[in-house]
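User: Run a structure prediction on this.
Assistant: Running it now.
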Amino acid sequence: MDLRKMSYRQKDRMLLPALGVLLLLCWFMAFGKTYQAICLNREMKQLGQQTESHDLSFNPQYSQRKLKALERILAGYKVKEGQWSDQLWLKSSSCAAALNVLVDYKLSGIPLEKDTLSAGQNQSVYFYGTYLPLVKLMDTLERSSGIGRISAIQIIAPRKDLVSQRKDKCVLRVDFKALEKLKQ
């Protein structure tokens, strides 16, 4: 069928079915999905109003799961009281020796008075070596238990002005955080 050869009456008759096919195509392409989304939104609003009185934070099962997760996280930070710096030094130096990395450990000052803020302890350890062993060392220290958790990492490019033993080696600073187990 050639549109140029058709009369206006034939074109008018074809216009209505073409409009119907176009609307049907639009329905399937856009309007149908929009209508489904509106219906889903209404259902979700009704469910939200029904469950509004059932706040999840007061659900005992949810609270127990949350408590267990928090206890697992805190367990990674807990260390034995008074032995943390020794454990940190022993484990970090043994890991470093296995990877042929030099260690520099400076003991942090112990607080004079114990209060709620001093329950957490911080300690920095410096390692000197090439890049790849330092990265392996970070991974090993992260998986070690009993030494707290790594709180910060800093890798510094090799410097020429360091002592001859540490010359042309990267410097890795690892900060650890730990919580002493409180006596009950």
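Residues 8-51 form the longest helix (44 residues).
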